[in-house]
Specification:
The structure is a homodimer of 217-residue chains.
Chain A lengths: L5 H11 L1 H21 L8 H32 L4 H4 L10 H19 L16 H15 L14 E2 L9 E2 H26 L6 H5 L7
Helix pairs in contact in A: 1-2, 3-5, 3-6, 3-7, 5-6, 5-7
């Protein structure tokens, strides 16, 4: 990145013309510190909200898929039908593994669609999966859908109003929805899927949940 | 907010002096679109990273505290020692409830401290809790610590390099650490604590995990 010594730059500007220097300062201050961050109609892209949802949800669904692969391998090694794991749950009134995966997928798909203002065109998945192959297909379909988004789809996401049918007309702002609803929810369902399998003996660890880290040295 | 019509502004600038207009454009472009977002020494505050960690971690620790209160009430109603729940786990080689709560607390405390560059002054908790009262005290201590942070502590958080002893000298950027490590981790441990209790019959639902939503109508 090109670096510029702004102090020297401004100092030179002042030397040449005090009046213009003042104008320069005012313009930069208005543009950078007041207008840009809060301009409601600006098309500023928020890469962090995109990274927090599209990129990270895709990563978590990939981790979930790999966790389910471990469950399939475990069932095969122990010679039992993996459907037993798919129908397992941690409490009699809690959703089973199939439903946890379906909800994790919907949280990713609809969370991103709502933030981008594209919920009406999101693909519909009718929750009919009963086999591991179908569940993996559901995960893949949602990851393919997420791949169609880019940071520019999130230009208005922070301030967008987000609602759901069950909220009875109430809404959250996009950033509230992301931070307090979509993000905690996807981690809840991936963790619960993980815990159902861990409880049933599948050899899983925290790394399976977190996935690879982009460590630098 | 004061609005400025930049096109008119620039046009006037050009009329007065083409040379200075060019300088003005270059300065604004450099400041706003190149320098500001990536300038490592800038004091730009990132309220979203603060909200994602300090505010939301505090909320989740509050939710966890309320979940533990429900566990205490359940043990009292069923007339068994709540310590049985504290020592429960979902798999023989997984951490028990006490350890899940301790790690959730450390994830919040150290996650925020690392992002703010204050890990050396973070309070030390030696993981000696064995009772529910002590666990609740640990949660309260961490929430009190979080309350001491403000958005300005996160001015350099995005680009800060974050490391942990077990990473053997490797590091993540602050934003990678927040999105891919600290945030997934705290939700993992709060969800696991919730699941241990749910599995043992405590009457919990998703709302206990998510907490109150700032719905607007």
């Amino acid at each position: 990145m090109q670096k510029i010594d702004l102090k020297t730059h401004y100092s030179n500007v002042e030397k040449k013309s005090d009046e213009w220097a003042g104008l320069l300062f005012d313009s930069i201050a208005l543009e950078c510190h007041i207008a840009l961050p809060f301009q409601p109609n600006s098309k500023k892209v928020d890469p962090m909200l995109y990274d927090l949802t599209v990129v990270q949800f895709d990563k978590m669904l990939g981790n979930l898929s790999a966790i389910l692969d471990k469950a399939s391998a475990y069932a095969e090694a122990k010679k039992f039908d993996v459907t037993i794991l798919l129908n397992s749950r941690l409490a009699p009134d809690q959703f089973n593994l199939v439903r946890q995966v379906q909800i994790a997928c919907d949280t990713a798909k609809l969370g991103v669609a709502r933030l981008a203002g594209k919920v009406d065109s999101a693909p519909v998945h009718p929750d009919t999966e009963t086999t591991m192959a179908e569940l993996q297909g559901r995960i893949k379909a949602v990851r393919d859908y997420l791949a169609g988004f880019s940071p520019s789809d999130f230009a208005d996401a922070e301030a967008r109003t987000v609602s759901q049918p069950r909220w009875e007309g109430k809404y959250l702002t996009g950033v509230e929805f992301a931070i307090q609803h979509a993000i905690p929810n996807i981690y809840f369902h991936v963790t619960t899927a993980y815990s159902i399998l861990r409880h049933n003996g599948v050899d899983l660890g925290k790394k399976d949940y977190l996935g690879a880290m982009p460590y630098k040295s």
